[in-house]
Amino acid sequence: MENLKNILAQNLVKLRKASNMTQSELAEKLSYSDKAVSKWERGESLPDIEILYEISKLYNVTIDELLSEEVKINHTKKLKKNPYHNQYPLYQIKHYT
Hints:
Layout: H1 2-18, H2 23-30, H3 34-42, H4 49-59, H5 63-66
């Protein structure tokens, strides 16, 4: 679990910096305190799942990417919402054979 905390912490820092945001700016977008963001980025605590989802939407990455060792920074060049991101969750897609 400790390794996962560190991976998430590093990815949060990379994504925030690639987006040219301060901890305070990110905190404001998420309606959290900058102290909470600082703790997440140092690996002292983890954001809850709702906040992870909001972070993934903000940076246009998946939660899996947030937790992987190689997050793709190129997603954050423009913080535009991808119209197809999370539009069709897998449980709603019907497979026809």
